[in-house]
Amino acid sequence: MILDNPFKRIHRCKRLPFFYDGRTDDYVLDSDYISSPERHSIVRSLSMLIKDLQTVLDFIEPDDENLTVYSHRLYELFLRASTEFESNCKGILLANAYHKARGKMTIHDYRMLNEIMKLSDYQVQLNFWNSNKSISPLSEWAVGDIITWYKSYNSVKHNRYENFNLANLNNVIYAIASVVCIVYAQLGDYMLPNRLESVCDNDGRKHCGYMGFGIISPSFEEDEYNIMHKKKYDVRQYFK
What we know:
alpha+beta; 7 helices; globular; five-stranded antiparallel sheet; disordered C terminus
């Protein structure tokens, strides 16, 4: 999709030559893009989710054989990660003058972000896993509205007794990885404690690490970069 206008809370950092001394995404620090308190809040919330996952993994070995393990602690993490994902999606849509109220949005509305943020193209490497594991937690958005882990979240949220097994390690990993993607898609390297952890490959895809999660973001065409200094925010045409 070719973009003619910059978007709020939608990050696209142009790849620069290695000799260029500067950045093309300082707009992330602009209060018109996202307020400083909200920027720090979504990073802090994600950090707490990952820290709590790390605590759980002190008792559950991060191995494929344990993906179906479920518990009350994993249930709690699953709900928190899923609602954090929802909150980020709603925040992005509302920042861009989306026509629905926050309480009326569903997964069908959230998927509209995929066309302009390429969320289905994100890959996440689990650097803490026992094997070389890589997932694409939002890849199903490339073909439809349904995301398996999100469907499981709704099922266990509405009937924990019957669907408690869905609050398993696999779904928790996918939910938290999705939050990693949606936060990075808003803030780029500004979500990282040390922005030097990020590098670009020859295809323009960014590689970076965040608390045990490796992020490989999609590449964009030359005319798809978000140039926030133009201060044109009328993007409602993309959210009809």
